[in-house]
From TrEMBL:
Protein name per Swiss-Prot or TrEMBL: DUF6789 family protein
A Pfam entry, by short name: DUF6789
Native organism taxonomy: Archaea, Methanobacteriati, Methanobacteriota, Stenosarchaea group, Halobacteria
Swiss-Prot/TrEMBL keywords: Membrane, Transmembrane, Transmembrane helix
Organism: Halomarina halobia
InterPro entries on file: DUF6789 (IPR046739)
Transmembrane segments: 26-59, 79-101, 113-132, 138-163
Protein's UniProt keywords contain Lipoprotein: no
Length: 170
């Protein structure tokens, strides 16, 4: 609409640029986070495939993610559950990482990502546990920890590689 009031109208040109740059930076963080989350979740899935081949992980556990939203009767609850898992790895967790990165240990984002991945692992290990015992339990815990460290490291590495920005904008 021509002539409609804008939130930029009362700002000086320098303030307009600063406000636009801040908004652009937040959107850019979201895109970078989604890219990092996709890379991290893909690599994490590779580690989980190795664990599954050794009998230390069951992809059937992803079906449990369909319970809270009432999609247990879909044709393939494991696939829908994995898509929910992927969406979580690409949206809320990268945004949380972007917000917490400055407060996590580590001088660089990939190192901070290791700590972030380890923190996420604590919930994953309990939430996706399907009754493993003995050596299978040890392998489950080990492989899922490695998978989360890989996720966190790669998320941080993508942030470091793609983020050409000052301190966190979120």
């Amino acid at each position: 609409m021509v002539g409609a009031p804008s939130e930029f109208d009362d700002l000086t040109p320098a303030e307009q640029v600063e406000k636009y740059d801040r908004l652009f930076g937040i959107v850019a963080d979201g895109v970078i986070g989604a890219a990092g989350g996709l890379v991290g979740t893909a690599l994490m899935t590779g580690v989980l495939f190795i664990a599954a081949s050794m009998g230390a992980f069951s992809f059937e556990s992803f079906a449990s993610l369909t319970l809270p939203i009432g999609l247990t009767d879909v044709a393939s609850p494991v696939t829908v559950g994995y898509l929910i898992f992927l969406a979580n790895g690409m949206v809320p967790f990268p945004l949380l990482f972007a917000a917490l990165m400055e407060y996590l240990p580590g001088e660089r984002p990939p190192v901070s990502g290791l700590f972030f991945g380890a923190a996420l692992w604590t919930g994953f290990a309990m939430g996706f546990y399907t009754g493993f015992q003995g050596l299978a339990l040890v392998l489950y815990l080990g492989f899922t920890l490695i998978a989360h460290l890989v996720y966190g490291f790669s998320l941080g590495a993508v942030f470091e590689y793609l983020a050409n920005r000052p301190d966190s904008l979120v």
